[in-house]
Design a protein that fits this description.
Oligomer: homodimer
Domain Bacterial purine repressor N-terminal (chains A, B): 4-71
CATH architecture of the largest domain in chain A: 3-Layer(aba) Sandwich
Helix content of chain A: 25-40%
Subunit structure (chains A, B): Homodimer.
GO biological process, one term (chains A, B): negative regulation of purine nucleobase metabolic process
Number of domains of chain A: 2
Strand content of chain A: 25-35%
GO molecular function (chains A, B): DNA binding
Distance between the termini of chain A: 48 Å
Largest sheet of chain A: 6 strands, mixed
Pfam family, one (chains A, B): Pribosyltran
Order of helices and strands of chain A: HHHEEHHHEHEEEEHEEE
Chain lengths: 270, 270
């Protein structure tokens, strides 16, 4: 069965979008559509142009026998900033302030469309970094970690506060929570992470950075490397920040419990 | 700026795939491409045909002033069954057996591509069901719940074993774990779920069904309705199953600790 160009373009778009960061040999498409490689190359040129124009991503072409095409996610910076400003407006609703100065964010983190969008933004910042795995700590960072990992085509490992019978042997470390200064424990299944892995650390929220710091200590136990750190929201507490090199999408610049006021601005991602 | 048909088809495919189950008025596309609605309708007819032919999904067209087009995810049953058989082979690796007869599944659940694929399969079974929210219990079910919810365009609520300061007021219930017969606690943030919501319960693994049963009790507290129950893996224990109406993709038919043997077959989804 022969496919028309219009049909090929639609199916290839779906295929590339659902196989991010995977090298697809041109023969895969040529066989899929019983088409000549030259036609497939023309199709890919059109797709690449539209993807770049619309801020969807880009196609990398690798020449040679082991070559092919790879979809890399990208985002439109202008669209991203207006999306993040919209999120800032959502977050600064005074009804979100909980006792202790915490913010209720379940509804935001519970919205898969928001999580996907944020994950895509973070992933786009790391498409050219060597990353083998995304790590997060249970539970709030999990959805975001998966969204990022999906776009980067790498697995997710989840650090826990307690060990589970379904995890097998684990490595456990103690760390000091940055804000409460209490000693806490983190556990990771031994089978989860290979020595020498390059790890992107993801979390939803960073205050002083104690939890992220704990994950960095965990990586040392596994002789793995920190390839990057990214959080959705950081609270501004520059004087006692435990972590240096990180990416944040939103920065809480003021949480005033008495006045019930929150201020949020774009993070250092922009 | 005018767009050629080939460009429109690529961008519309991306738009529809990233906005599942959302009604998109034709004017959105007409304005986006400065094209006549009649051209957009023709484009959509081509996309619909390819989506259906390739098992990507379908487009529902709603006529009238409040009308538009809606992408509904679908899966190809044959492809799905061969994918699930591949997963069964992965799962039956004797190295997965942990003390107590538990199975190590972190690597499978940590693979975003597998989770997306499974989520898509589950979502396709519920596209015509009235669902307002997806519910799961922390932590292993979370990635799958988000994958399903993303395709269904609904939020996720996460039941926890313990309450967190960042959740605000919570409702707590006790339930009996089906396999260990112990009393356990489940907690859900009060703000998370509206009365009368139609809820799809998702989990990674179901043994006797105690945890799913606990979630059903939680829904009663919120006067919400069970719209469906779906799990990735069920362990065969028909004699003491606490839950009736559910969907499973994989059924463990035998876990023999002594012989280090596991048997897994397709679940009742097929």
């Amino acid at each position: 069965m022969k496919f028309r160009r219009s049909e090929r373009l639609i199916d290839m778009t779906d295929y590339l979008l659902t196989h991010p960061r995977q090298l697809v040999p041109l023969t895969v498409f040529a066989e899929r559509y019983s088409s000549a490689k030259s036609s497939i190359s023309e199709d890919l040129a059109i797709i690449k142009e539209v993807f770049e124009e619309r801020g969807i991503g880009t196609l990398q072409t690798i020449a040679g026998a082991a070559g092919g095409v790879k979809f890399q996610v990208q985002v439109d910076k202008e669209e991203s900033i207006s999306f993040i400003r919209g999120l800032c407006d959502l977050i600064t609703d005074p009804g979100r302030i909980l006792p202790g100065g915490y913010l209720f964010m379940n509804d935001i983190l519970g919205n898969p469309a928001i999580v996907q969008r944020v994950g895509r933004m973070i992933a786009s910042a790391y498409v050219n970094t060597d990353i083998d795995v995304v790590m997060t700590v249970a539970t709030k960072g999990i959805p975001l970690a998966y969204a990022v990992a999906n776009y980067l085509n790498v697995p997710v490992v989840i650090v826990r506060r307690d060990s589970l019978v379904t995890e097998g042997p684990t490595v456990s470390i103690n760390y000091v929570s940055g804000s409460s200064k209490r000693i806490q424990t983190m556990v990771l299944s031994k089978r989860s992470l290979a020595e020498g892995s390059n790890v992107l650390i993801i979390d939803d929220f960073m205050k002083a950075g104690g939890t992220v710091n704990g994950m960095i200590s965990m990586l040392e136990e596994f002789r793995a490397n920190v390839a990057g750190i990214a959080v959705l929201v950081e609270a501004e507490q520059a004087d006692e920040r435990l972590v240096d090199n990180y990416l944040s999408l939103i920065k809480l610049s003021e949480v005033d419990l008495k006045q019930k006021q929150i201020k949020a601005i774009e993070g250092n991602y922009f």
